[in-house]
UniProtKB/TrEMBL annotation:
SUPFAM superfamilies: Ribonuclease H-like. Signal peptide: none annotated. This is hAT-like transposase RNase-H fold domain-containing protein. Pfam families: hAT-like_RNase-H. InterPro entries: hAT-like_transposase_RNase-H, RNaseH-like_sf. GO terms for molecular function: DNA binding. Residues 140-220 form the hAT-like transposase RNase-H fold domain.
Length: 224
């Protein structure tokens, strides 16, 4: 839009007119990361797919889940490739019923249970997806203003990705690189309005902006 207007007559030369959709960018960041670690979670996905394939299999799983758990809190849900949050929900559910799936493996000859290494990796992935899931849920909220929450949350994501770069797991490190590259493409420079929204929020103000920016981007990039 700014290219079609006389920017000299616009506030800050029209730089405030264009803003990327935060939810879309989050989706792109996570998608790039999941592309790297897709193979590592395949056996967990296959086990959920097997139990979700027919009502009879799911009923058998549910009975065993109720036998070994006081509460059957949630159904196993198979993920959808076009929705990364469904992958998080799938892994979270499978991990919750890890003991049940392992016992089911003894009784169901056609069922292939994930290995202990698979479970450990699934936990690693789930913990990291939770960061993005929580941020997306927060920014998608409707009963409250979200503009002032954007900047601290985005800084938190950047800080988390930087920590993952030091992971002992090679796949997690590769995942963090892909996520970082996509993050830097869109959010190296955060939109000024989002920073201003944080400052004018009585719960945040300038100290929140400085703390968030300094911890994730480095104090050397802060102007006095």
């Amino acid at each position: 839009m700014p290219n079609k207007l006389d920017t000299s007559s616009l506030m800050m030369d029209g730089s405030l007119l264009h803003m990327h959709c935060a939810a879309h960018i989050l989706n792109q960041i996570v998608k790039d990361g999941l592309d790297v670690m897709e193979k590592g979670t395949k056996r967990v996905q296959d086990s959920v797919a097997f139990l979700s394939a027919t009502p009879k299999r799911h009923e058998k799983f549910e009975k065993m889940a109720r036998l070994f758990n006081n509460e059957y809190k949630c159904r196993l849900a198979l993920d959808c490739k076009t929705r990364w949050n469904s992958t998080y929900i799938m892994l979270k559910g499978a991990l919750q019923y890890k003991d049940v799936l392992e016992r089911l493996y003894i009784r169901e000859k056609n069922f292939t249970c994930p290995t202990e290494e698979d479970w450990v990796f699934a936990m690693e992935v789930c913990d990291r997806l939770k960061v993005f899931f929580d941020v997306k849920e927060l920014l998608s909220g409707t009963p409250y203003v979200t503009a002032s929450l954007f900047f601290p949350q985005i800084c938190g994501i950047r800080l988390a990705i930087r920590k993952w770069e030091t992971s002992k797991h090679s796949v997690i490190k590769a995942m963090s690189k892909e996520m970082k590259d996509k993050f830097e493409k869109y959010w190296t420079d955060v939109h000024r309005l989002m920073a201003i929204a944080t400052i004018v929020d009585p719960h945040c103000k300038m100290h929140m902006l400085k703390a968030s920016f300094g911890s994730s981007y480095g104090t050397e990039h802060m102007r006095p």
